[in-house]
C-alpha cells in the first residue's frame, strides 16, 4: 500500500494517486469482476469443447452441447467476456495514473455501458449455443450484438482519450500511454471495418473469409498486444524501481507494431481464392513483426537486469514477466503460421488454436493478471488474503497454457501432414481429428487445471472487492524474506 514520508512532495503525490484511484475504483472493479466470471465460464467451456472433440457422445446428443457450438462460445467468452473487459479496466486505471487525471464525471455512463456490454455478450453467446451463429470466427454472435458492443467500448475509450489530452505530467508520457491510447482507436477501427464489411456488404465471397481472418489477427495485434505491452511497460519499471532501459527501443517497438499490425490476416488463406498479393503481404508483415517482438523483449530484459530476484517475491512482476515471455512465443508461432514453407501445412489445423490461446491467454491474460494483483489492493484498501492461492493461480496457468500451446503445435503438425499426405486421401476429416486424441485429451486436462485456478482467482477477487482482504500496510508477497528488496515505488 502507500507509504508515509516526511517530504511534502511525496505526501502530495501519494494523495494525488489516492484521489485518482478513488475516482476510477467503481468502473475498474466492475470490469475486473465481470471479466473474471466470464473467464471462468470460458475455461469451463474450453474443457467441454476439448472433451467433445475426442468423445463426441459425451453429455449425449444435445445440440446445444455439440463441439461446433461449444468451441466458438468458449473463444467468444474468452475474447469479449474476459479479454476486452479486463483490458478496459487496466487501460482506464493506467491512463488515469499516467495522465494524473481523476475520472470526475461520467461514472454512471461507464456503469451503464458495462451492464449493456455484459448483456450483449450474454445474449450473443446464448445465440451461438442455440444455433444462431454467423460462422465467422470471433464474430459468431448475431449482427444485432456488435453495435451495442461498439457503443459500450466507445463509452470507456472517450474518458481515456480525454485524460490523455488533459495530461499535466511534466516528465511526459511513458510508452505505456501510447499503447493504451492506440488501443482506444485501433479496436473501434478494426471492429467497425470487419462488422460493416461482413454484415452490411453482401456478396463478398472469398474476400469475406479474408476480412474475417484479418479481423482476428488485428484484434490480437492491435488490441490485446498493445494493452498487454502498455501494462508491461508500466509495471516492470514500477516494481523493479528502474526506468525503461531505452526509450528509443520502446518507440521503435511501438511504431513497427502500428505500421505492420494492420497488414496481417490474409495469409491465413494462402493458396486460396484470393489475389496472390494479399496473402503475400500478410505473410511478409507477420514475419517482419518478429522485429518489434525482439526489440520489446530486449528492452524488457535490459530493464530487469539485476532485479530478476524480484520475480520470486512480487506477484505482479511474476505474472507480467512470464506474460511478457509469451510475447516472443506468440510472435514465433505467428511467423510459423504465416511463412509459406510451414504455413501451408499448419493452416486450418490445431496450431491456429494454439496461436490464439498463447496470444490471448498466455501473453495478454497473464500480464493482465499481474496488473490486477497490483491494482485491486490500491482500489479496495486491503491486501490479497492468500499467498498460496496466488502461487496456485500462477503455476496452474503457466503449466496449463504451456501444455495447450505445445500440444496444439504438435497436433497441428501431425494434422497438417495427414491432410497433405497422398496416403491419407481416403480418410474422412473426422478420422483425422480422432487421430489427434492424445493431444486433445491433454488439452482438456490443461483447461481443467486452469479452470480450477480461475475458480479460486474469482473467489479471491470477490473477497477483495467486498473489502474482506487482509488489513496490512505491507503488500502480499510470494516470499516474505524479499520484502525489503522491493523498491519504495512498488508500494505506491
SSE diagram, text form:
Blueprint (H helix, E strand, L loop, with lengths): L7 H47 L12 H33 L7 H23 L16 H20 L9 H26 L5 H35 L6 H14 L16 H12 L1 H14 L11 H24 L1 H7 L3 H31 L6 H33 L9 H6 L2 H29 L27
Helix pairs in contact: 1-2, 1-3, 1-12, 1-15, 2-3, 2-4, 2-5, 2-6, 2-12, 3-4, 4-5, 5-6, 5-7, 6-10, 6-12, 7-9, 8-10, 9-10, 10-11, 10-12, 10-13, 12-13, 13-15
Keywords: Electron transport, Membrane, Respiratory chain, Transmembrane, Transmembrane helix, Transport
Protein name: Cytochrome c oxidase cbb3-type subunit 1
GO molecular function: cytochrome-c oxidase activity; heme binding
CATH topology: Cytochrome C Oxidase, Chain A
| CATH-scheme architecture | Up-down Bundle
Based on CA atoms alone, the radius of gyration comes out at 22 Å
Q: What's the count of strands? A: 0
Uncertain segments of ≥5 residues (pLDDT<50)? 1-6, 481-485
- Write the CATH homologous superfamily: Cytochrome c oxidase-like, subunit I domain
Beta-strand content bin: under 5%
Arithmetic mean pLDDT: 90
Q: Give the CATH level 1 class.
A: Mainly Alpha
What characterizes the major β-sheet? Answer: none
**For this entry, what is the oligomeric state of its chains?**
single chain
Q: In one word, what is the shape?
A: globular
Tally of distinct domains: 1
Distance between the termini: 6 Å
Please give a structural write-up:
By secondary structure, this protein is an all-alpha fold. The chain has a single domain, classed as Up-down Bundle (Cytochrome C Oxidase, Chain A), CATH 1.20.210.10. The chain contains 15 helices and no strands. The longest helix has 47 residues, at 8-54. The chain is globular, with a radius of gyration of 22 Å. The model is unreliable at 1-6 and 481-485 (pLDDT under 50).
